[in-house]
Design goal:
By secondary structure, the chain is α/β, with parallel strands linked by helices. It folds into 4 domains: 158 residues, Beta-Lactamase, CATH 3.30.450; 167 residues, Heat Shock Protein 90; 115 residues, Rossmann fold; 122 residues, 3-Layer(aba) Sandwich (Rossmann fold). Helices cover 53% and strands 20% of the residues. Pfam families: Response_reg.
Amino acid sequence: MTLKAKLGLVIGSVVLVVLCLYISAKLQLRHETMVRVQAEQQLLMSLSLMVEPFLVQNKVEQVKGHLLATSFSSTLPIKAILVYQADGNLFAATQFPRELFNFSPTRDLTGQKALQDGSTLLWSTVMVTPASMSYFDSNKVAAEGSTLGYVAIQISPLRLSQLWWWQSGLWGTVLVTIVVVALWLQRRIFYHQHQRWQAFLRQIQDVLQRPGVDEKKLLAFDTAELNQLTRQLCAQQQQLQQQLQQQSQLEQQQGQHSQAEREQLELNHQQQLKALAEDLKHSQYRLRQWQQLAVLGQQGQVEQQTQLLNWLQTQELLDKIELQPETVWFPQWLASQVALWQSELQLEKVHVVVVEDPALSLSEVQFFAQHTAELLKQIVWLVMQDLQQNELSLHVNLQAFSENKLLLQFDHSGQSKAIRQAISTTDPSAVVPQLCARLMSRLGAKLAVSALEDLGCSVRVELTLTAVSSQELPMYQTAVYLDANPIRAAVLKQSVYSIAEQVIHIQQLQQLQLEVQHRLVDLVLVQLPGPEAADQLWQDLNQLTVRTPVLAFCEPTQLNDWQALLQCPVLSNPMLSAHIRHCLAGQATEQPLRLLVVDDNTTNLAFVKAILGQQQFEVDTAATGAEAIRLAKSGRYQLILMDIQLPDMSGVMATHMIRQLPQHQDTVIMAFTAHASTQEIQQFHQAGMNDVVIKPLDAHKVADLIRRCQQLSCQNLIPG
């Protein structure tokens, strides 16, 4: 080997070593960057959950303590952790870098900023959740999903780990050692060849030095032999070149005719190989699934085997169906899915709480309903594998910022082992995680899992909605929600806002009776305890049902017992807006019309009540104007017969005050008098009365009153 060759080998080896180290450094940095990004997002999420209640309660010292503990315990190279309020002012921090003096997260929406010292500042928004809304003052309005503050972390720049430097040094040493060994072996070979060449030269010199050898003849013979061999080699070389040229020309001629055929054949073969590879992959995947089902059958888990078999068949059908968006009324769709979960997944044994978004409960959404239903059913099944206590809550929200998204969050006590398999499954034979992963990939869904030790697990599913349109549905003005469990009530109270504009939560039945007496209550929702612990409750509720719409909820196992005791409708949990609206719509058509007769003459009151009572009306009576106003405040009437001369005030004044009440803006109020002049009738109309009824009542007058009440009731079946 020449000196140039050796130099080239050494330089090439050095370049190879440097290239390998460079590639290794890039791959290492890429891997560490990916791991670090995930850790940063998880840290920001946990910090947001941690500081959320303290931001609401304005507890700075507690936040500082938690931030310092997080900074010391985190494996990330954290330089500082900062918490900002919603207006961008600093709330708390472990330390405050000088270059962040003028920084505010409200002015920079990127979520990331590079600092002068090479470190990076990351921040995220702390949002108002149903759990944190209970900390707000009742006089303040806290919109779910609004910004509560910001959490920021300052991270040192990413550097290569010490382990990589040791590995790189080791590989570089190995490569240099290989080059040195190769050079040493080449030198040994060259040394042996040189020795053989020296021996050959010595033999020639010995021949030339023998006596009687003519050196000139020997040299002439050798030269002639060499010339003859050279001429033969040149002739053979020319013949080979001619043959190669002819063969090349022939191949070019043939290649021009068959090039297109070869390309087509190659393309067909590639397509066939690709199709065979897909079929083989699918067959192997199906084989592993059937093997797992066979193992479940051998272990005696026949019900689970049957369920997985049905899911596999459903998945096969869904794979053949193109994704086509469907328009559904979301509350009804959600209610049907919850019923499906209870029947197929034995969810009736679990205490389920569903919190609906008021905006979403009044919406028609367009999305891939059939595929989404199968995905949610599989996610619920995975969540139940990690369930430790029989409690599961589902928060449903509509996110409508740049694009419409459906957010479903399952919260439960337990770990997150089974549900994490749906994100990155390592067991190729796990049927449900594989099916779930396939559906998520096809729908473009996002699944995030966050778990806190000793607190539970939160599974967040994000789905894209094609379109969202709101419906004009009637709303109750005031609803009272009776629930002895304050934790459950704080959550479900937000869900009741989907059917009522004002929600009042109470914990005791005595408070309910006071509320009904002193204010207009359009609807009462009751969470029932066990029947054995509520002897007096069912009697009081039956009395209340006579005058106020009442709807009760209980656990599925107690449904038959409570339905036998109560006169009001009793539904099983979870409490859903679709079920409430459907049940109350049927009740509204059956409710009798309510009338109020105001007269200071008891004989007239008894006579009018007897006549109107024959028409199956509910008739209330009042002898004074104050009593009439009190009844009007706590009730809703379709017709009021108002006497003009009352002991405490005139009927005109009482009518004027009743007209100020929201529930009596459209009520028919008739002046009930023995005589009325034209000027008096004009005063009655100015006070808010619709017409005049001259005493006494007769069949024609009663028929006219019935007609007016029925027309008004058809327009207002549900108060709004």
